[in-house]
Amino acid sequence: MMNTKFLTLSATAIAAALALAGCSTGTSTPSATSSSPASSASSMPGMGQGPGMMSSSAPASTEHNAADTMFAQGMIPHHEQAVEMSEMMLQKKDIPAAVTDLATRIKAAQAPEIETMTGWLKSWNESATMGTGHTRDGMMGEDDLKQLEAAQGTEAAKLFLKQMIAHHQGAVMMAKTETSQGKNADAIELSKKIVTAQEAEIKEMQDLLATL
Known about the structure:
Helix content: over 70%
Order of helices and strands: HHHHHH
Number of helices: 6
CATH superfamily of the domain at 79-123 and 139-211: Ferritin, core subunit, four-helix bundle
Shape: elongated
Distance between the termini: 130 Å
CATH class of the domain at 79-123 and 139-211: Mainly Alpha
Strand content: under 5%
Structural class: mainly alpha
């Protein structure tokens, strides 16, 4: 009796084992197949990455728009002229110390900014030359520069201050346009710096002019 039960149980166990083996064999291939797309997807660029893990296609510093380009292209020659005017004053004799100090500070501040903006245009693959549509706000003409170069002493100081006030006012207008219309974070930051610094210098020059 016991042998009969044992044989019956053994047959049942064997049948169950065969059934499980059959299930395992039958599902192994689809399982491997179903995992293949996932493996392929994870190897594709941008796939299998969590939110925020995809890298930007370009560094943030290269992101810019037309306003950023015009700002840099226009402000470079604007700054270059301010440096030129300041150098003229530093070469003259009998210039009030306060005016000489101002010219020194203008040159020291704007010369590095020229290099910075030139670097931006290069990284943006933009020309460093002004194109159409640029304004020359506050820029001096050739005759203005000749008058400044020829002037001496107090008259030169007065002329420099008058010209530089107009020059700075033009730069402030250009910078405010960049602040409101630009896209590049570094360019917008510089435009705000220019507005703050040059508005303060305009007030300083107006006060100096009143004392001469």
